[in-house]
Automatic annotation (TrEMBL):
Topology within the bilayer: Multi-pass membrane protein
UniProt-recorded name of the protein: Putative UbiA prenyltransferase
GO cellular component: membrane
Keywords annotated in UniProt: Membrane, Transferase, Transmembrane, Transmembrane helix
Chain segments carrying region Disordered: 1-57, 381-406
MF (Gene Ontology): transferase activity, transferring alkyl or aryl (other than methyl) groups
Classification via InterPro entries: Prenyltransferase_related (IPR050475), UbiA_prenyltransferase (IPR000537), UbiA_sf (IPR044878)
Upper classification of the organism: Bacteria, Bacillati, Actinomycetota, Actinomycetes, Kitasatosporales
Amino acid sequence: MAGRKIRHHAPAAAPEGTAPPEGTGRTAGTAGTDGTGRTGRTAGTAGPASRRTRWRRGLGGAVVAHVQTWRPYTLAHPALVGVAGASSAGGGHRPGVLGLAAGAPALGWLAGHYLGDWFDRELDAIAKPQRPIPSGRLSPGAALAGGTACAAGAALILAVVNWRTLLLFVVAMAGIVAYSRFCKGRGISGNAVRGVLTALAFAVGAMLARSDPPARAFAPALVFLLHDTSSNLVGTIRDVDGDRAGGYLSVPVRRGVGPAARLAAALYAGAVAVAVAVVVLLPTAHPGACAVLLGVAAAVALAAFGPLLRGTRPAGPAGPGPGVQRTALRAHEVLVVERLVLTAAVVAAGAGAPVALCLLAPLLAFSVVTQAVMRARHELPPPAAAQAGDARGPGTSGTDRKAYQP
């Protein structure tokens, strides 16, 4: 446990001229005395091979911690959103443009994960102690450096291709800080900030394909604003106990998980309505392909929101029954799949079904596999840790999160 000192007592030295007691494990090549009572290391101690082994284990643990911080199962979404923006602006058949439109938002997304975990390290110590920073597998300094490096990489791409996008980049970085530092614990505003960040990724993609895209090319950005506000709200239902313990006044903490689930479903319905309006009212190159994929996305969303709405329905005076967090986690896992299909629908509108499907298939497979392997352990703490967090009660994090109080 953090802050707990463990004292190691060395066994008593054997009398002079005698061998170490049997069973102590003290042999030649371990610690011995020099006749003055001081212990030292003799020849034959841990050599270069042992040090290399420890170094490799440490390096492997650090790599795993960074990969867990990346949440690989989420990375395909911002990349494909950037591609959707480029496709809407007429760059759907230019591989170089699509690569840059995917890379810049993905790097910005990684920066957001690093910086978000850095800001949330005290809350995670209560709610999710198994995560890299609170578990000690990733230092706060390394997370801050990783976030800064990823943000710098995204800024470099934007500056080289279209310097005007740097303004959107600055707004996005400010949004990441505002989300983690101020808005996350203040109800729907935090969820809306996350939606705005995805809408900015779409706008960046459009401006990387064309320096001055027409206004209609930005219309689908509203789809992503509403959609990711909704999916982020589902995430707060999953995190309701930890947010309550940390003093974060999210919508489920303030209003309950039932109203939060219904609001998330309403926001998603709004996203679909806007997408339909874009297909019907605005000129698109491939409206049929877009409509088909949009219908598939809506059908997948039903598999997410149906169980969530039923699971958060009041079951009596005590409120919703147990297992709400697992239900919300499962709903968010389904939405990870759904949002890729929805984004591919926007790609198809500008670039056609072949391009959209060629991108969707590998990204979907990668997201599903990495999510199945990594996500539950990253998002849900072990039972013992969860009980410990509940025992602390609300607002009892290491530094008392007063910044999040109303």
